[in-house]
Specification:
This protein has 382 residues and is of the alpha/beta class. Helix content is 33%, strand content 19%. Strand 11, helix 9 and strand 12 form a beta-alpha-beta unit. The longest helix has 21 residues. Bound molecules: guanosine-5'-diphosphate-beta-L-fucopyranose (GFB).
């Protein structure tokens, strides 16, 4: 009825449900996990800012579904955010809700989106030589997602919108139809942060705590294999060695196996000569990893990888294993990353939150050519 939603089993009622409004978003299908985490922050900050003005909108967390890089998931069903993140912590920053929580409140079990906005880029973002915030209605667009595998999500109207600039301008679109209850944005990666790198940005980033089981597993590994029980370890160096598409098509940014060994050895001898433990996070093929391992071993290093058991992989999924790799990298005495990988960026942010000196964090592997730009530094603002 119109007075709220009541759960007959638990005999509890949610009197706000019929007043609440919900925003959903989806991201360009080929984008990976770590860019998606940044897109989440843009929406979470938008909603958190709005909540301060008593705005009733909530953000629905889009499940993780069929990510291109997550190859071990043969049967792909939508994965809830709680598998990877601490939902209570996310909720402490922004009004967010999991999609399955919304379903459990809609009695008919069908979620109808009033308006599905498909965001598109402007053909020339620098029209008249200047990048300006703007939007206008477009045409000829389609939704290229799959509603995360749910076949009980429908929509009434699809609207094409060319959009560029700050995400809070999406409120202008939302305001055009005040009676909408469910609004969705496809290509949520197009709008930009309102304030990148500010205190609000970092408050949101800090709220993205990981699922407790993942943290526990990473800490157990650090204690058993890397001789570290502290927050800031001194006993190992960590590396994010991004391969796959990077190794194939970014030769000007990433080193060969031999080049990697040479650089790591030089780096460790210069910065922390007593350390012999090297932790490697990588999406590389087994053959590459074995070569890297044996070359590092031959010059005296102890090499460590987090290799999940079958049951761990089944439970944590590729996404959870990637997070465990990131957690272990975050706690190392020194971290060396891959240029322009968002996987590396998220580790750097984690280390800023843990309070590491930036000289231990913003280090990168260089291409064999030796031509090597320094990585950008994004320092924490408390
Ligand atoms: C160029 C762009 O690069 C973007 O990648 P980039 O920013 O590195 O980072 P991500 O967007 O996270 O995509 C890389 C994905 O590959 C896996 N992966 C990469 N490195 C590791 C690692 O060290 N350990 C584990 N366990 N998994 C790893 C993981 O599933 C991760 O989400 C891509 O998402 C885009 O599609 C595009 O290819």
């Amino acid at each position: 009825n119109n007075e709220g939603y009541c759960d007959l089993k638990t005999k509890t009622c949610d009197h706000d449900f019929f007043k609440e409004k919900f925003i959903l978003y989806d991201v360009n299908p080929p984008e990976g996990f770590n860019l998606r985490r940044d897109v989440y922050m843009r929406f979470a900050i938008m909603l958190s800012d709005a909540k301060k003005n008593k705005n009733e909108w909530k953000l629905i967390l889009p499940p993780w579904y069929r990510l291109y890089h997550w190859r071990s998931e043969s049967k792909s069903s939508p994965i809830h955010w709680s598998k990877f993140f601490d939902i209570e912590s996310l909720k402490s920053f922004a009004p967010v809700v999991e999609l399955h929580e919304v379903f459990s409140k809609t009695e008919i079990n069908i979620l109808n989106i009033d308006r599905l906005y498909v965001l598109q880029n402007f053909p020339d973002p620098f029209e008249d030589g200047e990048f300006k915030d703007k939007w206008e209605f477009g045409e000829d667009c389609d939704y290229d997602g799959e509603f995360w595998g749910y076949n009980n999500i429908t929509f009434t109207e699809i609207v094409c919108v060319k959009f560029q600039g700050r995400i809070s301008n999406l409120w202008e679109l939302i305001a055009l139809h005040p009676s909408d209850k469910f609004v969705m944005f496809a290509h949520g990666e197009i709008p930009l942060h309102d304030h990148y790198g500010t205190k609000t940005f970092w408050d949101c980033r800090k709220s993205m705590k990981f699922n407790k089981d993942l943290i526990e597993t990473a800490k157990k590994f650090m204690s058993e294999h890397l001789d570290c029980k502290e927050e800031k370890c001194t006993s190992y160096v960590s590396v994010h060695w991004r391969r796959q598409d990077f190794a194939r098509s970014r030769r000007k940014d990433v080193p060969s196996i031999q080049g990697t060994v040479k650089q790591l050895d030089t780096f460790i001898k210069k910065n922390t000569p007593n350390v012999v433990n090297v932790f490697i996070a990588s999406d590389g093929q087994n053959s590459e990893l074995t070569q890297l391992e044996s070359q590092l071993k031959s010059i005296g290093y102890r090499v460590h990888f987090f290799v999940p058991s079958m049951s761990e992989l089944d439970d944590f999924k590729d996404g959870g294993v990637a997070i465990i790799d990131q957690i272990i990298c975050s706690h190392a005495a020194y971290f060396i990353g891959t240029f322009e990988s968002t996987f590396t960026f998220r580790i750097q942010e984690e280390r800023e939150i843990l309070g590491f000196d930036s000289s231990t964090t913003f280090n990168r592997l260089c291409p064999d050519s030796g031509k090597c730009e320094k990585p950008s530094k994004w320092s924490i603002v408390n």
